[in-house]
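note to self: dont lose this again. the chain is below, predicted strucutre after it. 336 aa total, dont forget to put it in the shared folder this time
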Amino acid sequence: MQTFAAMSKQITLSALDLSVVIEGGNATTAIARTVEAARHVEQLGYARIWLAEHHNMEYIASSATSVLIGHVAGKTNQIRVGSGGIMLPNHAPLAIAEQFGTLESLYPQRIDLGLGRAPGTDQLTAAALRRNNMGTAYNFPSDIRELQLYFSDENSDGRVRAFPGEGLDIPIWILGSSTDSAYLAAEMGLPYAFAAHFAPSQFYRAISLYRQNFKPSPQLDKPYVLACVNVIAADTDEEAQVLATSMYRMFLGIVTNTRRPLQPPVQSMEPYWSPDVENAVKQMTACTFIGDRNTLTPTLSTFIEETGIDELMTTGNIYDQGARLKSFSILKDILG
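---
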């Protein structure tokens, strides 16, 4: 078998984890699975692992994202740990500057700060988080600039300063699932991470706009694109397809608003969805790669070459932890 590395330049590989609660588990076991995954991908040589902010979701244990980042960083040695992302409109920029300044002080040169505009939840919960100030999403660009100011040395004469935080080099990323975020990341000269694992429809257009409109900045001199996709890898295509049913059932729950813990795999999805629901789920998961090494090598190669991405971030909602860790290993084997 020919690996992707043999066919093209080596690509940076990273992981996204939401601390998903599996059937029979709870938040404690979900976080333990996250730590085990972080240690595993660190040993494999993955560049980073990110955790995502979600609220009012019973089966996602990453709501206190900064706390969880600190926990994972403390249980690993050199892998970068960050947010994929912090939903900045839910927070005062000063609070995030202090939190991530503290993390960077504890774990120097290992912390990433990915920022998103969406609430990461439903509107009622967003109102509770934002204390009914629902206009904060419109302040996203100015809030990022305020955050950058708190991290800069230029704020040493400011009346409001971030300690820890001031003077620290904490990479800021813009996260997105639409073209709006692409324009913003380009204008600010920041790296761009696209959530193709659940919102693939505008992916190609967004990264094209980002590259076309990119303006160099002190943080970045040329565009940098990270794509997050679903990868379910196994020893055989048949095994991978069965493992993927847990992911499909999770997205089915999102589409039908019948969320459950991550379910064990099943032999077939046919009893679980109608054609309309299947179509909706397949649209959400269009950037999903399922199979063994021989299947994934050409499909991932084509995707990476067509998109020209600089980094591939993988998330794979696999019920069995051993199979999940093996999927990370197979992907690393493929990408070299």
